[in-house]
Amino acid sequence: MSYKVVKFGGSNLQKSTDYTRCADIVLKYKQSCVIVVSAFYQVTDRLNKAALEAADSGHFPETFLRELSDICFEQVQANVKGEEQLRQTNAELQSLLDRLALLFRGIHAISELPRNIHDTILSYGERISALVMKATLTSMNQKASLALPEDFGLITDGEHGVASILLRESAAGTGKYFVEDRHYVVPGFYGISAEGKTTLLGRGGTDYSAAALAYLLNAESLDIWKDVEGFQTGDPRLVKKPRTIDYLCYSEAAELSYFGAKILHPRTVEPLQLRNIPVRIFNIDDPSDTPGTVIHSDTGEELHGPRSITYSRNFSVLKLKGAGIGIKPGILARVAGIMDTAGVNISSVFTSQTAICFLLQGADLKKARKAIKADAPSLISEVETITDIALVALVGEGITKKEGIAARAFQAVAEENINIEIIAAGASTAAVYFVVKESDCDRSVIATHKYFFPECSKHNNTNQHSDLTSVIL
Ligand code: ASP
Ligand code: MG
Known about the structure:
Distance between the termini: 32 Å
Bound molecules: aspartic acid, magnesium ion
Strand order of the largest sheet: 3-4-2-1-7-9-10-8
CATH topology of the largest domain: Carbamate kinase
Mean pLDDT: 91
Largest sheet: 8 strands, mixed
Number of strands: 18
């Protein structure tokens, strides 16, 4: 059987009737689809908040559970037709909600949130969403079943919160499970460890689930529906009329996602690249047969400037100081080992004679600092953290090899009297980035975008804090 793999995210599921809207799109494919869904808009955030509160303050989230239950039953009511179908879906939903309440009772009782329970609770957003989507399709006389990662065997490395999907281990089960000429609805965002535990794939992970399924089923393409056209040359909240980019290669999409553009989970392209499967991004508000952005292999076309400029306020720097630290053999490995044990992911490293700077995700900074302080090599005399920074990235395959592009970007920024704190070309050949004070971030993005895309850059209101996350997740 050949299937289309189609993903709908939280941005497609904001109103209760949106399940029917997505199902209408599925029908247009006129073939069997594997539909991978995210949680209803903001449900994951709310589950997370309630779980943390229940463990921390011993507060049982009665109101939250009632509100969630109301939202979900309303969705069933709005999308599911036929008395019997309604009765059955409501019963299935109730049983999911009962299990969720039980998990909350557990953490409330022990005032602790074990990592596997945390992951399990957060996966309920997707579990409920998949149930509603399946019932919606069934109501439209489609043959549709739920396909749960624990049933078909989407196997992960078991790391809670940010698991990796093990493709080889997942292949056998998936191959046997998806065989019928029908739609399958899969809850995204989680897989199962070898011990059978629910493990989340990181925030926004449904893209990654869908990509793994496209790989495992050797799909022709992965279609991702969003509420935007696709990748753009810049953030529309900062630069006026950025262009939608019709074609990106895998490395460009990965770097853009990694450095800030909240369009795709940064790991989405990993499995697809292995089988050269394209990603096609479509806009649900303007559905057409032509995708906004296609992500596929590199065309080898010469690069004249960045394909897109992105930024992130989520990074911070941990600076370790000490005489000769930057040139002392073995120090870097030792410190990197400490970070690894603490579960901190190092985004980049810069060294000088007297300092080593680690670029880290903002959320990891405290953890990293604590681990280093507890186990610091004697050479380190001072540990400094820099938080009020932003990272601006220029992305385009080959950008690090093409002389002049970075220099021109720095010129554009210098003309605005902005001081660049750190310049780096990452390990990839597709990105160059620089770090500025957070207060200079918007102006840096606007200046570089205006320089490389003069036809579309005009200042918007730069005081507006841009936060794509709230729109896309
Ligand atoms: N619902 C999850 C999140 O909000 C996964 C996803 O949306 O892809 O992160
Ligand atoms: Mg999402």
